[in-house]
Design brief:
- By secondary structure, the chain is of the alpha/beta class.
- Helices cover 36% and strands 13% of the residues.
- It has 13 helices and 12 strands.
- The chain has a 7-stranded parallel sheet with strand order 8-7-6-9-10-11-12, sandwiched between helices. Strands 2-1-3-4-5 form a 5-stranded parallel sheet, with helices on both faces.
- The longest helix is centred in the C-terminal third of the chain and has 19 residues.
- The protein binds 2-keto-D-gluconic acid.
- The site of 2-keto-D-gluconic acid has 9 residues, from loops.
């Protein structure tokens, strides 16, 4: 009988996923879910055939240098691969896979929630009834927000998630604008009634709401730099469910503090789990809504992600190309 691959999983996964992994592989699971240190990751790589990391693991060149001869596959539990030095892995002959597609709709739902949250003061309003005993009742001029319908939404990154956000946003009466490395097909543009902006700078200057939906790569690091953020209208809102690194977080916090933007709703941060204290203060003042990286946090989504990881490992060890290989062109 063929030896079962030793699969090291760095974090706790949904029960059904772990059970299936135990059935198929020699699975080394993380029962107490404590994040692994860099040295623990390095040690795991010396023995593993497969590593299953998550966004909380930094699989950098130093960790990869400790990889033993058996390590053939890094099957990331997650879509984003910025937690892995993929080039170093590929140079060592290690295949890398991710979990695209299965978290698109959940992340787009959360993005839509955040698009509504700040202008319509949802998080702020939700605190009034339970926390403040002095709600004296409805008033025509109390807690007024801003209308969503008829506003311009600028999507930065029109991939799967960006398009899923656009589909939802159209139903809310937003007009769809986007910037992307490559223009999407005329068919998709037509379906979404989306306007393409080749110049990100020009788009930013004209939007009411900007949603970041691109991956974090060397090319998108601080894509929304201090200079670009300054191009936004004072009445604009910024939403980010992609990666914190795409926005210069400090510059954004400073502008919000100075009242140079209407608000922001962020699900991701530059140095997770640390969040810029200025943003935390602004959240207490109800100028921003901050979520703890919940974009894909549904039971269904996490089970589907686990299923993808399993299929990637299984096909790889059955001698096939795993369906979600990360290719150099994607970096
Ligand atoms: C996941 C994500 O929670 O898949 C991604 O890229 O950002 C998240 O939704 C995380 O990556 C799991 O590793």
């Amino acid at each position: 009988m063929k030896k079962r691959p030793l699969v090291v999983v760095t974090r706790r996964l949904p029960d059904v996923v772990e059970t299936r992994m135990r059935e198929l592989f020699d699975a080394q699971l993380n029962h107490d879910d404590a994040p692994m240190s860099q040295s623990a990751l390095g040690e795991a790589l010396t023995v593993a055939d497969v590593l299953v990391p998550t966004v909380t693991d930094r699989i950098d060149a130093a960790v990869l240098a400790q990889a033993g001869p058996n390590l053939k596959l890094i099957a990331n539990f997650g879509n984003g691969i910025d937690n892995i030095d993929v080039q170093s892995a590929l140079d060592r002959g290690i295949t890398v896979t991710n979990t695209p597609g299965v978290l698109t709709e959940d992340t787009a739902d959360m993005t839509m929630g955040l698009i509504l949250a700040v202008p319509r003061r949802i998080a702020e309003g939700a605190r009034v009834v339970p926390d403040e005993h002095d709600w004296t009742g409805w008033s025509p001029t109390w807690m007024l927000g801003r209308r969503i319908w008829g506003k311009r939404l600028g999507i930065v990154g029109m991939g799967r998630i960006g398009q899923a956000v656009a589909r939802r946003a159209r139903a809310f009466g937003l007009s769809i604008h986007y910037h992307n490395r490559r223009r999407v097909s005329p068919h998709v543009e037509e379906q979404l009634e989306a306007t393409y902006w080749e110049s990100l700078d020009q788009m930013l200057a004209r939007m009411d709401i900007v949603s970041v939906n691109c991956p974090h790569t060397p090319a998108t690091y601080h894509l929304l730099s201090a200079r670009r953020l300054k191009l936004l209208k004072k009445e604009a809102y910024v939403v980010n469910t992609a990666r914190g690194e795409v926005i210069d977080e400090l510059a954004l916090a400073r502008m919000l503090e100075a009242g140079e933007l209407a608000g922001a709703a962020l699900d991701v941060f530059e140095n997770e789990p640390a969040v810029n204290p200025k943003l935390v203060k602004l959240a207490r003042q109800n100028k921003v809504v901050l979520l703890p990286h919940l974009g894909s946090a549904t039971i269904e989504g996490r089970v589907d992600m686990g299923e993808k990881v399993i299929v990637n490992i299984k096909t790889f060890f059955d001698g096939h190309r795993p369906p979600d290989r990360v290719l150099p062109a994607m970096l």
